[in-house]
Structure formats: structure tokens, C-alpha cells
Amino acid sequence: MDRKAKAVWQGTGKDGTGHLTTDSAVLSATPYSFKTRFENEKGTNPEELIAAAHAGCFTMALAFQLQGAGFTPTELATEAAVSLDKDGDGFKISKSRLTLRASVPGIDQAKFEELARAAEKNCPVSKVLNAEISMDFTLV
């Protein structure tokens, strides 16, 4: 299975602009630029998209872990915070911090943590990130 996205950029790195489009059209000429990446201009940036991908991937992986163990979550809500840090002359994504709030009837804290850690380790986005991954969770 292949998934595709396309980036188009015009101009210099600092003053230019670009847009991103995905085959599904969820992103359709979505703007990105130096200002959307390093300042707070409206638009997206690669790190925000990686954070969304990590949150979504981990949460779905956890849903499958729970299902396999006989549990049905009422809600799994995950935020991923991706850190972009200076690395020599460039930058690198150094961390992805997952913060999970979960409501899962009938599960105890130890079993939930076991399944959440398995999902954290085994979701495909976690596996592709060359970064420190951490997870905090609250089971309600």
C-alpha cells in the first residue's frame, strides 16, 4: 500500500511559499512557508503533519491493542507534540511526546499501560521516527 502527497514550492527558503496536496484531497493546496513553520502564520508545516500522523497512528494502534485484549474504549484522545531542534547547520525532529486521555470500561491501570506501551512502540509512525518518543496517559 502506497500513500502519496505532493509539495510545490516557489521562491527562496525564507521568503518563498509552498502548498501541500494529498491524493485523498484532505490537504488541497494547503499553504506552508517559513512563517508557518518557524512563526505562527496560518497554514501548516511538516512537524504539525508528523504530530497529527503520530497521534492518529498511535491512537488507532491502541484501539486495536484494546480490541485484541477484549476491551472497547469509550474514547481515546491523544495529542502529539513534536519538537524541532537545531542540529548542526540544520534541524531535526528530536522528540514526539504523546499525551493520552482514555476511557476504557473494565480495564485496570496495569493492563492499560501494557497495551498503551505496545501501541506506542509498534505503531508504524513510531517506528519511522528517529526521535525520542514518550507517552503520558490518564485513564478515566
From TrEMBL:
GO MF terms held by the record: peroxidase activity
Pfam families to which the protein is assigned, alphabetical: OsmC (PF02566)
InterPro entries for the chain: KH_dom-like_a/b (IPR015946), OsmC/Ohr_fam (IPR003718), OsmC/Ohrsf (IPR036102), OsmC_Ohr_Peroxiredoxin (IPR052707), Peroxiredoxin_OsmC (IPR019904)
Domain of life assignment: Bacteria
An example Gene Ontology biological process: response to oxidative stress
NCBIfam families named among the record's database cross-references: osmo_induc_OsmC
Name of the protein: OsmC family protein
Provenance organism: Microvirga brassicacearum
Lineage: Bacteria, Pseudomonadati, Pseudomonadota, Alphaproteobacteria, Hyphomicrobiales
